[in-house]
Amino acid sequence: MEVKNAVLPDQEQIKGFFDPDAEGPIYMVNLLKFREWAEYEDGRETRLTGREAYAIYEEGVTELLPSFGGYGAFFADVERLALGEVEDLWDVVAIAVYPSRRAMLEMMQSDRMKEIAAHRSAGLVGQLNIETVGAYGSWLDKANQ
After folding, report:
1. Number of compact structural domains in the chain
2. pLDDT, tens digit, for every residue of 49-84?
3. What backbone torsions phi and psi does residue 95 show, to the nearest 5 degrees?
4. Which domain CATH number covers 109?
5. Which pLDDT band, with edges at 50, 70 and 90, does 99 fall under?
6. Residue 9 lies in a domain
7. In whole angstroms, what is the distance from residue 36 CA to residue 51 CA?
8. Which of 45, 46, 58 has its CA nearest to residue 117?
């Protein structure tokens, strides 16, 4: 399996946002890899690390999510790879929850998102976004049924 981080979706991935909504909420798993130092596309000088630049974006997204019916469910540093192999580990795993794919798309196209997007690009080497649907509760809940 080849793993390729990216900062922006390709054309096929963009089309997926316009497909009919999946049933139920969307749980977007984000595997984030930060630059050592932020690199802004407009060439601005900064002493921010990639993680610090991304934190500006993250703060904006945290404020935006509730406006579109979503919330941040999980954010944690990656400690180690416990199973399998990958050439380079991500730095952080985050999960954002949206009530629908449409709500996620509307947020991504919002004016506020456009304002903060530069911090995301400046901070990230790349990431993987994995869209999941059909939250089933915890495994423990299933085992107790």
Report:
1. 1
2. 999 999 999 999 999 999 999 999 999 999 998 988
3. -125, 125
4. 3.30.70.100
5. very high
6. no
7. 8
8. 58
